[in-house]
Amino acid sequence: MTLAAGERATTTEDERLPVPGTTRWAWLREGLWATLPAWLAARVLVGGMSWYLDRAHPLGKLFMWDTEWYLLIAKQGYDRPGILIHFFPATSLGAAGLATITRLPTSIALFAFCWMFALLFGALVHRAVVRETGDHGAARRAAWLTQLAPGAFALVMGYTEPLAGALAVGYFLALRGSSPGQTSRLTASRTWTAAALGFLSGMARPIGVLLAVPGAVEGLRDARRADWSRSAVARAAVAAAAPAAGLATFLAYSRVRYGSWLLPYTQQTAKLDRGGIMGNPLGILRHVWRHDPRHHGHEVATMAVILIVCFVALLPTLLRRLPISYAAWTVPSLLLAVGSKDFTSLPRYLGALFPCLMAAALVTRRRRQWAAVLALSSTLLLWTTYLVFKDYTVA
């Protein structure tokens, strides 16, 4: 059968059905294989930088910064004096559970846990791009960018970003459905999947609760399609409230253990740490540029400007090519990232914004464009990794 001139090919519902011989998890296998080369490359780049800076302890740098805290919490919980409770518990609990089940040393279990979820993060982003656009080429590019984004050193170290990233993408897929072009209503099974992933997200990172925003957006849209039926409204409420419920559970633990509901946040915003919820980016830039105690202020400021400009430039594509719920989560997350004291942790905060990585993959369709973006991203990854491993406060 041929198409008449000017007639467009369309994908029917039957054509989206599984091909005989495939399984319902074929999409996961495809995403994992698409991510694996970049996953390996990231470990070569970050591990190579660790070896370059300390050849006596080739992988020693991987245990710096937050890795040390998550490892201590996995071993001893929050009982050790001096433990900072603003390191949320989901990653450490997962690593401790893996160590118990496998009898691996906790340090190895932590890296195994984080590396596994880093690979899953890329596979889920791959699926999200296919689900929203049907573009498998863009999906592969997005999967690569998850592993080679400037802040992707956090996916190689023992940080919470791998788990938090996988939970966030999984939450979106549960809300919107994982099949390409799917517009079906939020079913009971998808509601409870979203609720579980959202709950764990609220316990994974201090800003995990922001997933409640896209949860509300998608929930209201679904309830409107269902003509505001009670069951649809109830499902929307459960899915949207889950991230806040996870956060509330951890804050309740803080109240029982330390006598303060807000200690995880007051520690995070203390003067010696983040220094506040949101700072003025221009004021932060001036401060970083002028105050140069370790002779790296100009370098950090330059790196921060490049990253901020790149990610802000992707917002129009995000708004145009992806559903509004993605922007509803990305924009407040981006604002909090650029408002951190002295741009502390800016690269990894931005690298976690997977909708921007999806947008970058969608606009780099030509080979030369993709080669340039991949080279730039990998170079920035090496640069930020160098700063992190040199003990500069960008981790």
What does this molecule look like?
This protein has 18 helices and no strands. With 395 residues, it is mainly alpha-helical. The longest helix has 29 residues. It starts with 25 loop residues before the first helix and ends in a 6-residue tail after the last helix.
Name some characteristics of this structure.
395 residues, mainly alpha, disordered N terminus, 18 helices
Helix content: 55-70%
Share of β-strand residues = under 5%
The radius of gyration over CA amounts to 21 Å
> Counting H and I runs of at least 4 residues, what is the number of helices?
18
Unreliable stretches (pLDDT < 50, length at least 5) are 1-21
Going by helix content, strand content and strand pairing, the class is mainly alpha
Q: What is the quaternary state of this protein?
A: single chain
How many strands, what sense, and barrel or not for the largest sheet?
A: none
Shape: globular
Structure, briefly:
With 395 residues, this protein is mainly alpha-helical. It is built from 18 helices and no strands. The longest helix is centred in the middle third of the chain and has 29 residues.
Helix/strand layout:
Elements: H1 26-53, H2 66-76, H3 90-102, H4 106-133, H5 136-148, H6 153-156, H7 161-176, H8 188-202, H9 212-225, H10 230-258, H11 263-268, H12 281-290, H13 297-313, H14 315-321, H15 324-338, H16 346-351, H17 354-363, H18 367-389
Helix pairs in contact: 1-4, 1-5, 1-18, 2-3, 3-4, 4-5, 4-7, 5-17, 5-18, 7-8, 7-9, 8-10, 9-10, 9-15, 12-13, 14-17
